[in-house]
Amino acid sequence: xxxxxxxxxxxxxxxxxxxxxxxxxxxxxxxxxxxxxxxxxxxxxxxxxxxxxxxxxxxxxxxxxxxxxxxxxxxxxxxxxxxxxxxxxxxxxxxxxxxxxxxxxx
Amino acid sequence: xxxxxxxxxxxxxxxxxxxxxxxxxxxxxxxxxxxxxxxxxxxxxxxxxxxxxxxxxxxxxxxxxxxxxxxxxxxxxxxxxxxxxxxxxxxxxxxxxxxxxxxxxxxxxxxxxxxxxxxxxxxxxxxxxxxxxxxxxxxxxxxxxxxxxxxxxxxxxxxxxxxxxxxxxxxxxxxxxxxxxxxxxxxxxxxxxxxxxxxxxxxxxxxxxxxxxxxxxxxxxxxxxxxxxxxxxxxxxxxxxxxxxxxxxxxxxxxxxxxxxxxxxxxxxxxxxxxxxxxxxxxxxxxxxxxxxxxxxxxxxxxxxxxxxxxxxxxxxxxxxxxxxxxxxxxxxxxxxxxxxxxxxxxxxxxxxxxxxxxxxxxxxxxxxxxxxxxxxxxxxxxxxxxxxxxxxxxxxxxxxxxxxxxxxxxxxxxxxxxxxxxxxxxxxxxxxxxxxxxxxxxxxxxxxxxxxxxxxxxxxxxxxxxxxxxxxxxxxxxxxxxxxxxxxxxxxxxxxxxxxxxxxxxxxxxxxxxxxxxxxxxxxxxxxxxxxxxxxxxxxxxxxxxxxxxxxxxxxx
Lengths: 106, 558
What we know:
By secondary structure, chain A is of the alpha+beta class. Chain A has one domain: 2-Layer Sandwich (Ribulose 1,5 Bisphosphate Carboxylase/Oxygenase). Chain A is 25% helix and 25% strand. In chain A, strand 3 and strand 4 form a beta hairpin. The longest helix of chain A is centred in the middle third of the chain and has 14 residues, at 62-75. The model of chain A has no long low-confidence stretch (mean pLDDT 87). By secondary structure, chain B is of the alpha/beta class. Chain B folds into three domains: 3-69, lambda repressor-like DNA-binding domains (434 Repressor (Amino-terminal Domain)), CATH 1.10.260; 91-126 and 141-200, RuBisCO large subunit, N-terminal domain (Alpha-Beta Plaits, 2-Layer Sandwich), CATH 3.30.70.150; 209-511, TIM Barrel (Alpha-Beta Barrel). Helix content of chain B is 44%, strand content 13%. Chain B has 24 helices and 14 strands. Chain B has helices at 3-21, 25-32, 36-43, 51-61, 65-69, 86-90, 111-123, 172-180, 197-200, 209-217, 237-250, 269-287, 302-314, 324-327, 329-341, 352-355, 361-371, 386-400, 437-444, 453-457, 463-482, 487-499, 503-511, 529-537; strands spanning 97-105, 144-152, 155-163, 188-194, 224-228, 254-256, 292-296, 319-323, 345-349, 375-378, 403-404, 416-417, 425-428, 449-451. In chain B, the strands form three sheets. Chain B has an eight-stranded parallel beta barrel, surrounded by eight helices. In chain B, helix 17 packs parallel to helix 18 (386-400). The longest helix of chain B has 20 residues, at 463-482. The relative contact order of chain B is 0.08. The A-B interface holds A 3, 5-13, 15, 19, 22-23, 26, 43-44, 47, 84-85, 90-97 and B 210-211, 214-215, 218-222, 251, 284, 287-290, 446, 468, 471-472, 475-476, 478-479, 482-484, 498, 501-502.
């Protein structure tokens, strides 16, 4: 079985869609740049997961992020999907956690 | 001309110069620090004055010593720049000066005497030497006291500037050596050092820092969880490795050797390193996370330290720990350079108490950041009252910020610009359990390492369950904060809600008390066999009344 636990929030119960939306909103409120990544059965050594684009031409809201996570999950049903917020001023991610795992897929 | 005539001529010239400068003999004596008795003897022509005294007097009168001694011309002495007092001109800090702040406690000196004492000690010069005449003071500035203030009963704060070129570039050892010269023969405590930009740029700082540790370990957006292994002695190396494995597997990010565990019979360092490396690699495979163990490489000599660090690296361990106060500054700098070249994270930990009487806590942290410790242990903001919280905040600012402002309650006496020096990660230590995490994260924010060896190893179901309980508590708090909850207000309910989902956390919350801070606290009621043993060694004198110890009654949390 694929390992579905990965770093931050991996010890918590699976997040509800509403909880994901609130976290996405927090990333935007802090002025951080949201980023969606996905990988099938990743090892902890894999620094770079594949990136799922968030369209830049419109204003990014939490709804945009959630809908992009959903479309990423539809195209990659067996992947772990990670949402991160990058802070340009601190020059590092201020948050990064897995929002969807293969087990969550209904 | 006889000697007596020369002296009389000198006295005449001096009197004229004083009249010109409009200065009384008392004032001249005060400013030039030539004693009144000596000055009156000079003025009455009774003595042949020393060169040093005349130089001092000439400096106060702003005239040349040649004019005072001139026996041919009776020209009036030229006085220039009379508006600016000499003292004010001498006592100011240049932009490139190092500024050290000292605190003298329980002293009988006046602020002025204290300033003079420390300044002389800094110069290392108690008498006037003939070699002084060969030193050009305009190009060779000396340490000067610039500020001295009574800040309490028998308590004086003195600031002394040091020219930056007295200190060797990039050397904390040299910095401390130069500055601690002032403490000679006084009971002063070093409170803060301002390091000018020219000198700051010569320090390398930590190789990884907060950003590097997070990027390397892939752990973002939450404080890291660390546990120190217990007990310190008595376990075999293999059993010790088992404890490390259990703890890491449960969800702890970092495990540490105790700082006082070096190499003891029954748990030699080579064996310990081997089994610990095995434990880390197994936990890594099992948990799908990068795990770290900081092996203690403190050793009798720097060569031994580097040898042990090399062995740890060969085993695939990527973190070493050193008892920074015990091994000394140069050893820490050597190891720091080694770590930079060998991609190893360096923890400078332990023995803060060894130096805390001489160097303040946040200054120790600043110096460890300069030497290049990626992780520095600090106190807990929850231990003690609000004072402790402010002090620990000052310490954590010193480690993390690029610029710090004056924050006297937190011990930061000067502003400091770190010129982009890599930040160190504070590891706040000792006695935490999950109940404390909301307040802790609220006080110090995300970029810390929470050390809670006690509540991890002391969990009733073992250290794997203890790790899970603590890890779940941290993540629940971070998630709730992201959802907009206030940690001070909702902290307890966040934990209690999450305890419904996790049995380990539920047990931990029932087992530990919110108020109990299990560090430096004597538990138990004093009855029982251990207390009986203590009775035999405690010797109370008949005159001393026994200490009143308040009975601690743990409150029930629901």
